[in-house]
Amino acid sequence: MAFEEKNILNRLYIVAGCMFLFALAISIKLMNIQFVDGEKYRELAKENTTKNFVIPANRGNVYADDGSLLATSVPKYDIRFDAVTVSSEDFNENVKPLSEGLSKMFGKPVAYYLDMFRKARADKNRYQLVVKNLGYSNYIKVKNLPLFNKGPYKGGIIVEQRTVREHPIGQIAQRTVGDEAFDRPGYYAVGLEGAFNDLLTGKEGHRLKQKIAQGQWKPVYDENEIEPQDGYDIVSTINVNIQDIAHHALLKQLEYYEAEHGSVIVMEVATGEIKAVSNLGRTSDGTYYEKLNYAIGESHEPGSTFKVMAFMAALEDKVIDTSSVIDTGNGVKVFYGRKIYDSHRGGFGKISAARALEVSSNIGLATIINDNYSKNPNKFIDRLKSWHLNEKTGVAIKGEGTPMIPQPGDKKWSRNALPSMAYGYNLRLTPLQTLTFYNAIANHGVMVKPRFIKEVRAWNEKVTAYDTKIINPKICSDETLKQVREILKNTVKRGTGKSLYSPDFSMAGKTGTAQTEYWMPDWKSNRRYISSFAGFFPAENPKYSCIVIIHKPSTKKGFYGADVSGPVFKRIAQKIFTDSQIIDSVEGVEKTDPAIEKDFEQYYAKLQQPAKTVPNVTGMAGMDAVSLLENLGLRVQVVGNGTVSSQSIKSGENLKKGQLITLNLS
């Protein structure tokens, strides 16, 4: 008995000791939580009951030069239906008028909506999609329909709002303006949207909220912890009217020639402001849309538009003048074992250097450059580099193509490189880089940097203005400029662009026709070309420069620059001319000629004398004859339409007021 009692006491001591150790461990842990890890657990508790909610900033707008919207953010609404939260009484009473209202708004049958709501009710669907992408006004109308007007709990309406980017002028200039990446919502990489994304985006805000129930949060403070800052607005240089003209002129030509793709740029000469950029590529079904920014990103062999640069280099280096005689032979000439051809059958023979450029003679330009630079090709290359033709223009829009001007020592250099470059091969430029040079010719030799932005604004207040930047203050002498501008005018009047000439308005420029993919084995059976035209207008006092590039037109319909790209240039120039004509003042309109004044006085005195005989009205317009005879007091009867072929009373007979005269018109 005593042994058993002692054994029980030992067990009690062990249990008491364990309890003591357990209590001691808890005390130590509590002290550790309170004093060592206390801050950590307090933060954890706070995180589970409070949360920072992001308040998105409004993205800035992109405007045209006149304030028209090119891109803006608008709210869109998706409406869904919680079929469980609505009572049976409310559902049965309102489901039909709700369906009727939706049918009236969106055109689907009433039965469609009735079946949808009843099926959602039967399936206990708490997230049934009703309609997507509503604008604000339609969202308000839907929200006020029967049942939905009872709110989210009684009416079951679920509203999901999101912000989308829209282009009010549609797909015109969409690639230049830029768009949201389809696979990365909220990400902008192309166009003005991508170039100025940091300015347009703004800064998101934050508001601290506390959890009060499952899925429900309320603000901890009356104000946001961090207020959102809306993005800045961008005012671009794009002119909506000129952009529309360029887009449709290019589209019409691409469709007719079934071309692969094309681009147009219109630049304001004095400022370098880009007034229009159109980039259209063909889809598999033959339609065209803003596919890629070819105007800025696509570098290619420019062909004959580069002949102007080569010719100017020779003029400026004084190795030729415009009257230098160039022997182009019979249209074929061999340079270092390779034949160069002219498009004119039989060749041009001996012609002046100026004429060689006007008629776009490949042999003429190759001869000029090879004869004068073959012993020192770097002299020619250095002249091109002084014009920055080997450099990007540095425009803000991402993805500018890299130019390529080879020089001795490069892999692409050979003895044939120099004559090839003379007529636009063996080098690469983008349309924008080519136009920048032509714009300098129009701008009295001042090469300005192309720009797409006029200013940055915040709340309609100017934040930053973008001024004209000069790349090269004078690309060549005034004499060279004068000569080249005259040749470019004559190219349109009597050269390769003569089909584009119009006496009603003046333009100057250079056609271009370049073979492309000629290195591919199927080229001879399937010839591909790049057609181009670069120039400026009006020719005498240029306001705009323009380049048109069309890739791979159907050779069955034509491929020469004057036929394919030139008409687009002309259409743009004509339309801009029509919208803003240049008005010349005429001096001395108030002065009178004494001889004319004397004749008028004699004529006027004769008119004052009363008529005594019937006049001859044969050959006069019917309306004029009737007016004249009635004013003399005769009654006039007219037979037919047109001019008077005969009159019933012969001219010279005595005039009797009230007498009837019949006029036969034909």
Automatic annotation (TrEMBL):
Recorded GO CC terms: plasma membrane
Keywords, ordered alphabetically: Carboxypeptidase, Hydrolase, Membrane, Protease, Transmembrane, Transmembrane helix
This protein's name: Penicillin-binding protein
Taxonomic lineage: Bacteria, Pseudomonadati, Bacteroidota, Flavobacteriia, Flavobacteriales
Subcellular location(s) per record: Membrane
Chief location of this protein within or outside the cell: membrane
Classification via InterPro entries: Beta-lactam/transpept, Beta-lactam/transpept-like, PASTA_dom, PBP_dimer, PBP_dimer_sf, PCN-bd_Tpept
An example Gene Ontology molecular-function term: penicillin binding
